[in-house]
Amino acid sequence: MTTVLGDGMGRGADPGVWPAYLALYRSGELADRARSARARLRSCTLCPRECRVDRVAGALGECHTGAAARVQGFGPHFGEETPLVGRGGSGAVFFAGCNLACVFCQNHTISQPGEDRSSGSRGRPGEAAGATAGTAPPGRHVAPRALLWEVTPDRLAAMMLELQIAGCENINFVSPSHVVPQILEALMLAVGGGLHLPLVYNTGGYDSLETLRLLDGVVDIYMPDMKYSDDRAGERLSGVPDYVRCNQEAVLEMHRQVGDLEFHEQGSNRPHLVGAAFHRERHRAAGGARPQVARRGLLVRHLVLPGGLAGTAEVAAFLAAKVSRDTYINVMDQYHPAHKAARHPELSRRITTDEYREAVRQTLAAGLWRLDGREVAQADRPPGNEPPGNEPPDKKRGVP
What we know:
Blueprint: H1 21-27, H2 29-39, E1 69-77, H3 82-85, E2 90-95, H4 108-111, E3 149-151, H5 153-165, E4 171-174, H6 180-192, E5 199-203, H7 209-214, E6 221-224, H8 231-238, H9 243-258, E7 262-263, H10 275-286, E8 294-303, H11 312-323, E9 328-332, H12 353-365, E10 370-371, H13 373-378
Parallel strand pairs: 2-4, 4-5, 5-6, 6-8, 8-9, 9-10
Antiparallel strand pairs: 1-2, 1-3, 7-8
């Protein structure tokens, strides 16, 4: 555990980049917010579903999570967006359960684990010790050891501190919308133990304004999905009737709190390189100077779906007009049919290169320019080089 300096700040922390939650901890405000969030579990309204079940008493809502958070795994993650990875990787904590029910969920075994609340291991957080995935060379993904255990605040705090000791650049809470009270309780303990890394709120984007306001000054980097621009798609594919309104309100609130994405080693919040050039610079920097690492701000994810189902043009237009033209966005190309996608013919194939190129074009045409570089670089491959299963319907074998 990191040495404590007496006020919860770990030895070796850089006072120029200390996150704001340390001030809330010293003032007592962080403890007050943790108590307020915990009280909301009695009739849960943490997310826009407002299930109003008593999670403290063990009742389950749509997220299938009770009073304790469940963690599927944790460890340094080198597959996240360029500004989160740096040299040490993003310190990911993967929470089980989700407040959405996406039929194409790429991580459905974690996000929609059903009624199996603890895999027979409730109340055994101590056995999770050593479950960090460990460090890995840049460019390699880390598969954290599966836990799926209900964890105490003490154990969740210990995970954060283990990730800091491992050299991670940040603490990345994956699917946190339904476990904000548990995160705040654990954060109190982690700060007392010396935590001083930026916090990343990595969310599906269906978040409550009231819950987000509890996180004002706590979260350093918001990373929401913007999945759709049409509520009909949100209801049919993710099981909620008001995704677009709630998502847009949440993104506006996130940007109000943290602004545009800023970097540790950049005097301005406008990086010199974007897109594929930024990605190439990251690889160059890996052998020399430290790559740029996000310090604070908003980073939006948008997964391109087949046939334009995600509404990329409208999502980009909203960000450019209502949020900021300097919004950092990852236009993602990794969609593949997963979970229940085969039941929906329009989702039963990967996207084509042309579809992805069009999504990038629409994003740039809206006035956004800070695009994460990995997928943008891949869009440079020649047409017709789609991987197997990626062909448009009229190009597949046997279709005239």
